[in-house]
Design a protein that fits this description.
The structure is a homotetramer. By secondary structure, chain A is mainly alpha-helical. Chain A folds into two domains: 1-52, Homeodomain-like (Arc Repressor Mutant, subunit A, Orthogonal Bundle), CATH 1.10.10.60; 55-200. The first copy, chain A, is built from ten helices and no strands. Chain A has helices spanning 3-26, 33-40, 44-51, 54-78, 83-92, 101-112, 114-141, 151-166, 168-174, 178-187. The longest helix of chain A has 28 residues, at 114-141. At the A-B interface, α6, α8, α9 and α10 of A face α6, α8, α9 and α10 of B. Chain A binds a DNA duplex through residues 3-5, 7-8, 11, 32-34, 42-46, 48-49, 53-54.
DNA sequence: AATGAATGAGAATTCATTCAT
DNA sequence: TATGAATGAATTCTCATTCAT
């Protein structure tokens, strides 16, 4: 990659990051190209040169966001900590500011461009799936997950928790109950009627 | 209420319903006042006469939506069916088209007017809380819910399920797994190691 | 027509006339909506309320122009003056400023929206045709036009002259030669080899 | 001319031709520098290096177009075919696609830069004039043109025909009438009352 | 000489809101 | 009360032109 290209790539990333930050703060639809331009210290036209139109910029920002999420997740799965620790991190760690942005991207993509959105979700799923399988395998092997449950359902269950706890409000309300909440994760509402080997 | 007022109230409701339908189809931010006016067969100014500005209209539409949700929930709690049936309905019945609108209202309110939003959520919670307590009480009494769990956590847990299954995509993916998913609801990932008295 | 409508129609006409004048002075593509708005003393949005988009405005202005041309032509045909006088007027009178606008409308319509353009030309032709026939009939009856010539060709021939002499440059160059030019109109390049009964 | 210059001249011509083709297809005002650059396989800046600004490019393209027209005309005059044949060719042969581009250049130049435009017209006229005189002389000598007509008027008359028949629409409508139309060219509307020695 | 990157100025268009009746 | 008409402000996007290498 020559000097031109490298600089160019860097600028593209600058723009994406600026737009991501603004999207997080004000929501996607509220942010104008001119604001992004100002924040990224480029002219509006430069943005158009790189992304052609606003939709493309949003799309690429969404991709950027998802790529980050994915690599975070993979890193977590590979970490050398006990299974319940991993789950706790996955469920409780309201990852930085990412709070509500997920839903908004989701909404935006669904409404305007459902095809691309699906494509993205798909590729994301495919990337993530193997690691999810690995995680579930680990859980089953170590006796934390019922072996009779299908991976499909387990995955949805985990994702549900992860998504839910990312909401700002929720994470607030959870603060004093996080232990209990993790326990519910494993034992459901019915609870564990036996000796608690989990030590959550 | 005299004839004037009644007619007036009817018109207000017409407008709210029109805006709600449009919000559901196109998302809140995409819908303009003029579109709402057209759909409700009134002039734009009439909308301003009733609601003063767009924000108020959205706010009232949100209230309208929440009131419906609440009364649905209360009706469900009062129904004379076994506890697990209630839960199933709550969790699996992807209530009509209401699908993603919830999240969008949520996003919108958080971003623009967090104070009012909180007020609304609060009053909503207060209205719903007693019935939730009743529901939880029923569950605990009949042995479906671990008595040691706090109502707070139980409520969040149930809401999490309810919200999650409302997403269009999710309900698609769930179709063949709904039984298993309900089971997870009660037993969590650890699963039930004993005889299954639930008969889900 | 009530007061509202009348005022509204008047405003629409104001806008069309403003845009027509500007088109004539600067050419169609050079004129922006905001300039038209300024000249018509309305806001840009008012123009959009009436015409929806720039193309529609241009289209209606074109229609307005053509309607004027047509009624001018019809008036001329109905005038009570000798045939050669009518021709002279038709050919030589470089009608006010209308100079080059015709061609520009023509170009614009061809390039962007050939369908509508054709429709307009057609309706125009249909309106004008009967009067053209009348004019030609008059010419043939009085011995100014060769009876063997087809109306089609005669019409094109006359139009060709009319169009050509409308060009600013041409009318300049013609000034000292207009008599001769009218003569050519009747006798072509070959000239009249007999006594000149026309008295042009 | 050394290699450098030759290559450079070639590139300049490439650009002019690209712009000419685009102008013909989309109209002058609709074509952007970047499109021309793409079509000519050069960078935008290269165009600026050669032509300084868009106006100059258009101007040179116009010159290029006119030069072609002129040399076509001169070739025609020099051809060894009977006079009426020459006229037919001049009048009826809707030269390739050049159709409406003439008018557009004309409009453009008039509106924006009437001075240069005049200069161009002038030089063009000067170049063409001698050959026009030759053509007219030939016509008069062979009895096809009335000797009393001024060259000025004859020239305008011929140009009028040539221009008119170049329009796409016109040439369509003319198809079945071309013979008759040529006849009108020579005899005007009054027609030839004697034996027809022209054999058109 | 040639070009990828960048931009200021301005274009069409949309929208929430107000005016006047 | 109800509404047709009108608008200021903002938004997306385009384009001729210049910068920097």
């Amino acid at each position: 990659m020559d000097g031109f290209k490298r600089r160019s790539e860097k600028k593209k990333l600058d723009i994406i990051q600026a737009s991501f930050l603004l999207f997080m703060e004000y929501g996607i639809q509220k942010v104008s190209i001119s604001e992004i331009a100002k924040k990224a210290h480029v002219s509006q036209v430069t943005i158009y040169n790189y992304f052609e139109n606003k939709h493309n910029l949003i799309y690429e920002t969404y991709k950027f966001y998802i790529d980050n999420e994915v690599s975070d997740f993979i890193k977590l799965v590979k970490e050398d900590i006990p299974f319940p620790e991993k789950i706790k991190k996955l469920i409780l760690q309201s990852r930085q500011a990412s709070a509500q942005i997920h839903e908004e991207f989701y909404q935006y993509m669904i409404q305007d461009y459902s095809k691309e959105h699906n494509y993205l979700e798909l590729s994301y799923t495919e990337q993530v799936l193997p690691y999810f399988d690995e995680l579930i395998h680990e859980g089953k092997k170590n006796g934390f997950i019922d072996k009779q449950l299908s991976n499909q359902v387990i995955m949805m269950y985990i994702q549900m928790f992860a998504e839910y706890t990312k909401k700002e409000e929720v994470s607030m309300a959870l603060l004093p109950n996080s232990e209990e909440f993790s326990k519910v994760f494993f034992y459901g509402l019915f609870g564990y009627k036996d000796t608690n080997k989990l030590n959550l």
